[in-house]
Write a structure and sequence with these properties.
- The protein is an alpha/beta fold and 333 residues long.
- The strands form four sheets. Strands 3-2-1-4-6-7-12 form a seven-stranded parallel β-sheet, sandwiched between helices. The protein has a three-stranded parallel β-sheet with strand order 8-11-14.
- α1 runs parallel beside α2, α3 runs parallel beside α4 and α8 packs across α9.
- The longest helix has 29 residues.
- The chain is globular.
- It starts with a strand and ends with a helix.
- The mean pLDDT is 92.
Length: 333
């Protein structure tokens, strides 16, 4: 049976790659985003992969619009089986150089957009007692970095919200599952369209991964949603481990490296588009696709992602090696 999947922020970056991945496996995919050009491109990608696409223009900061989009999906396609929350916007700037309406707008899109998407999906899944919600998160859900205070705040909030919801679903013995995928730096177009007040062009903090790595992680999480979360990339695992053990040291390290590490050597163009208030692919815009400007630096695989998906196998191998070592030591005695 064909699964009906909804992907928010589907016009570019991770959302675009996820939509392609789901279509290639046979899902019917509803694409939610603001930009018409990007939506049209994403819909064409889905059809080219052999899937059925339903592009819907919607601002994720508007709950009524999100709920109406979910209703349209169910009327035109059928019951939603998977909902992937991914839409976001942000501002690259020190906190005191950010206007408060900009901070509020980032929070509304990047945090409340997840809340609204989750609510719209859950309202329908709960009556059927089945379905999966995947929250596309970030290592920044645990570890804040400079120049991205609004985005980091939103990702932290999503983490807390999702944990609370997960416990409520467990209490209700619900067969609706919610899981989270914590992402590393990804080569998406966001670095060329996020509102920026930095003197130089913004860039992801290395190591950088391709959006297809993130899409594979989301697909796996959708198929194995009983795990509370997945980590993608060795950098995510190292960052979260370091933050748990020595957050103060990490504060000082990021104070030294976090400003320069998020900027290239090129000056930021004065006319760089900004998608905070309006889509970057609006009138006179263009389809930005899934990839950003860092293909030459981005990794197409993640060994840590494989390890995250094979905990049982690694535990069995580790146990076997430990047993063999103990037997060898006993024999020596």
């Amino acid at each position: 049976m064909t699964r009906i999947s909804v992907v928010t922020g589907a016009s570019g970056g991770i959302g675009r790659a996820v939509a392609r991945r789901l279509a290639a496996r046979g899902d019917t995919v509803a694409l939610l985003a603001r930009g018409e050009e990007g939506l049209d491109g994403a819909a064409e990608d889905v059809r080219r992969a052999g899937g059925t696409a339903l592009p819907i223009e919607v601002d994720m900061a508007d709950y009524q619009a999100v709920d109406a989009a979910a209703e349209r999906v169910e009327k035109e396609l059928g019951p939603i089986g998977l909902w992937v929350n991914n839409a976001f916007s942000s501002v690259f700037a020190p906190f005191m150089e950010m206007e408060m309406p900009e901070f509020a707008r980032t929070t509304e899109v990047s945090y409340l957009g997840y809340v609204y998407g989750t609510r719209a999906a859950l309202a329908r899944m709960r009556t059927r007692d089945q379905g999966v919600i995947v929250q596309v998160g970030s290592a920044l859900a645990y570890r804040g970095i400079p120049l991205q205070s609004a985005y980091c705040g939103a990702k932290h909030a999503i983490q807390g919200f999702t944990e609370s919801l997960r416990v409520e679903l467990l209490h209700a013995k619900s067969n609706v599952h919610v899981t989270m995928v914590q992402m590393p730096a990804v080569n998406t177009p966001q670095f060329g369209w996020v509102l920026s007040r930095l003197p130089r062009k913004a860039q992801p903090v290395a190591p950088i991964y391709q959006p297809e790595v993130a899409a594979r992680a989301v697909e796996y999480a959708a198929d194995h949603p009983k795990r509370r979360e997945y980590w993608v990339g060795g950098s995510t695992a190292l960052t979260l481990a370091a933050n748990a053990v020595a957050p103060g040291i990490l504060d000082r390290y990021l104070a030294r490296t976090g400003f320069k590490g998020q900027q290239t050597d090129e000056r930021r163009p004065a006319d760089q588009p900004a998608n905070l208030w309006a889509p970057a692919d609006g009138p006179r815009g263009h389809d930005h696709g899934a990839h950003g400007d860092f293909d030459d630096q981005a990794h197409s695989r993640s060994l840590q992602l494989w390890a995250s998906q094979h905990h049982g196998l690694l535990a069995a191998v580790g146990g076997g090696l430990a047993a063999a070592g103990a037997a060898w030591a006993f024999g020596r005695r």
